[in-house]
Design goal:
heterodimer; A: alpha/beta; Glutaredoxin; Rossmann fold; Ubiquitin-like (UB roll); 4 domains; five-stranded mixed β-sheet; 21 helices; 16 strands; B: alpha+beta; 2 domains; 5 strands; 43% helix; elongated
């Protein structure tokens, strides 16, 4: 009899919820029964409320069980886990779970399905088709394919990726660099982490394509010390790719060289800003650079540099494989393709939901996410990380789209959505935004460095009722200065969470509750 | 719980020597020194400066810019509790208060007996299983007061959290 294939996830979320202990228990249970089974440690499907989610390959497909605790394993084996047997923890065929079925997984197509470190698995699921097609097309046509796709920077700024590449390709230089911004510091986001831990070759392929397209031979992935596991998985994947001739000299006989290296940040949020990241890579303090010059002209070590968000780079393989127009046909307006939306915080079904742009915020939070984990009413969501606006339920009709969010003084950022129930104190969250900015400011520009600290003090006065009206005027003026006068998005966008909290939830700041009629 | 080597100039010079060829070697070197000794003591600064042909001030500037790098040894156990928004939405603040009380150490400090360091961390990317923590290098999600109790008991018994 063919030994059954069992999957136990090993991404950080699954492990943080006990997946290693579950796998260990499973191994012991199987050997006690004299069963030889192939336990594959896949990445996570991104259905995090179900983690650890054991999957078993059956004739009908992969049957899932979750969330499994080590204590459940014996009972599951007894219930016939190996054959997809019935059990209260059984979630049926994983591919049929509505949360997964409703998604359009382009960038995350392989995530959770394959063994992250198996090149065989990767190639069996479409891996390296993108690079092969790029090599056929040649560098210039590869760049144009990315332009054609309409892909925009997934880190939050939304700058067209292809245009960036064109600029770097056209720049005169003896050395160009590809830098992956994997400094995913936004609370409520884990898309970069999931790619690194569940489909690392996808990022390697994307960066290799970028290198080929713009004529760069060296690349760096700048990740975070908060992602210890991602770093280890990526290093292993890079080694494997190198051994297989997919990194290094003369890749796939193309005559093109490309190699890459992992680098780790050290707990500085501001290094997610591209120029601070470059400074850090150079071995300096993570101080933001004034632009221009743009990194595309003078980036890492003053050389032309493509610096892209990890999700952007990981989307390149599918674009090259299926064509720019295939990707462009998803989405709405100027937001083309799909976005991995990350549902987090106080939410019942937290996880990764990749879908075409255009889905409404309310649909994401209520229909997909199932409302709050606490069961209490949703009061606010913060979209786009610590620099994103707090949006009230009255804005839930907003479609997920760069421009639609911008029109409401909000941003989609890196696609994180953090849900809060009605116990949240919005004045506290506004204060936290200023406090976080003060903690993380690189200190180069005054509005951010000093404004954030003054912001904390002023908010404290507002809340305690000390000259409330005057201090509110002062706070708005301060936010205005920070927004327009800061060198980068840290100081420039901190006003978004602060002002949105103040505008939508004035009652938390010591004002009389706003009348519903006056809300619109 | 991590076990570190005692500071030695020779060992530090060896660690630096292995990495100095890298482009922008300062950060990898600081990480490696901290991994070896648990922190980056002041005598490391001139060693790095000399090796990389930088001024001491430049190296000092880098060392002190990043939140991760320590200039003092950490406690035998290091608990980093996520303090970012997603964990706050799931009661992270109350849990942090509970941890301070239960572990007997204030946030951002090391207990006087050198047993425990308690620190905030800004986002482990475990935002869909909040609140989360990094305990002696191990990721922990769906944290609750009971887990903090187990942590305190394990530390008191000289074990790591999660050891059976």
């Amino acid at each position: 009899m063919k030994s059954p294939r069992i999957f136990v996830p090993n991404d950080a979320t699954a492990i943080a919820c006990g997946a290693d202990r579950v796998a260990h228990k499973l191994e012991k249970g199987l050997s006690a029964r004299g069963v030889t089974a192939d336990i594959t440690r896949n990445g996570s499907r991104g259905l995090f409320w179900l983690e650890p989610l054991i999957e078993v390959e059956t004739e009908k497909g992969r049957v899932g069980y979750g969330p499994v605790t080590p204590g459940d394993v014996e009972e599951l084996l007894h219930a016939g886990l190996l054959h997809g047997g019935e059990h209260p923890l059984c979630v049926g065929l994983v591919d049929e779970i509505p949360y997964l079925k409703k998604q359009t997984r382009l960038t995350f197509a392989r995530v959770g399905i394959i063994d992250p470190l198996s090149l065989t698995d990767y190639e069996a699921h479409g891996g390296y088709r993108g690079l092969k097609r790029a090599l056929e097309l040649g560098p210039a046509a590869t760049v144009e394919e990315v332009v054609e796709s309409g892909l925009r920077g997934r880190g939050g700024a939304g700058f067209p990726t292809g245009i960036k590449w064109r600029t770097v390709a056209a720049a005169e230089a003896d050395q160009r660099y590809i830098v992956c911004n994997a400094d995913e510091g936004d609370s409520g986001t884990f898309a970069d982490r999931l790619i690194m831990e569940a489909d690392p070759f996808c990022l390697i392929e994307g960066m290799t394509i970028a290198g080929f397209a713009v004529g760069a031979t060296r690349g760096y992935v700048y990740s975070r010390s908060e992602y210890p596991l991602s770093f280890v998985v990526m290093e292993k994947a890079i080694e494997k790719a190198r051994a297989a001739g997919l990194l290094g000299k003369n890749i796939l006989g193309s005559g093109h060289d490309f190699d890459l290296e992992m680098r780790m940040g050290a707990g500085a949020y501001v290094c997610g800003e591209e120029t601070a990241l470059l400074e850090s890579l150079e071995g300096k303090r993570g101080l933001v650079r004034a632009k221009p010059p743009l990194p595309a002209h003078k980036g890492l070590f003053q050389k032309p540099t493509v610096i892209n968000n990890l999700v952007s780079l990981a989307t390149v393989p599918v674009i090259l494989d299926k064509g720019g127009s295939f990707y462009r046909d998803f989405g709405m307006g100027r937001s083309r393709g799909t976005m991995p939306i990350q549902l987090a915080g106080n939410i019942k079904y937290g996880g990764l939901f990749e879908t075409a742009f255009g889905i409404s915020l309310g649909e994401l939070v209520n229909d997909i996410g199932g409302g709050t984990a606490s069961g209490r009413p949703v009061r606010a969501v913060q979209a786009g990380g610590p620099l994103g606006a707090y949006m009230p339920v009255s804005q839930f009709d907003t479609p997920f789209d760069y421009e639609a969010f911008a029109a409401k003084d909000a941003l989609i950022g890196h696609g994180g959505i953090v849900v809060f129930d009605d116990t949240v104190d919005m004045a506290h969250m506004a204060r936290f935004a200023m406090e976080f900015c003060a903690h993380e400011s690189c200190g180069k520009c005054t509005p951010c460095r000093i404004g954030s600290t003054r912001g904390v003090e002023t908010l404290d006065k507002v809340v305690t009722g000390e000259k409330r009206e005057q201090n509110l005027v002062l706070l708005r003026d301060l936010c205005h200065t920070m927004k327009l006068g800061s060198l980068c998005a840290l100081g420039g966008f901190t006003p978004y969470p602060v002002l949105s909290a103040l505008n939508h939830f004035p009652e938390d700041f010591g004002a009389a509750p706003s009348l519903p009629a006056a809300a619109e | 719980m991590a076990v570190y080597e005692d500071w030695s100039t020779e060992r530090a010079a060896q660690v630096i020597g292995e990495l100095r060829h890298l482009e922008g070697a300062t950060m990898p070197i600081l990480h490696a020194l901290q991994e070896t000794f648990g922190f980056v003591p002041d005598p490391a600064v001139p060693l790095i400066a000399e090796s990389l042909n930088l001024s001491r001030a430049e190296v000092y500037g880098v060392l002190t810019f990043y939140h991760d790098f320590r200039r003092e040894p950490p406690g035998r156990h290091v608990v980093k509790l996520c303090a970012a928004e997603a964990c706050q939405s799931m009661g992270g603040k109350a849990l942090a208060d509970y941890a301070e009380d239960k572990l007997g150490v204030a946030m951002g400090e090391t207990s006087t007996d050198g047993a425990i360091t308690l620190e905030p961390i800004y986002c482990l990317g475990l935002c869909a299983c909040a609140p989360s923590a990094l305990v002696d290098g191990q990721l922990v999600g769906r944290l609750d007061p009971q887990a903090i109790d187990e942590m305190a008991d394990a530390f008191a018994a000289g074990k790591s959290f999660g050891d059976a």
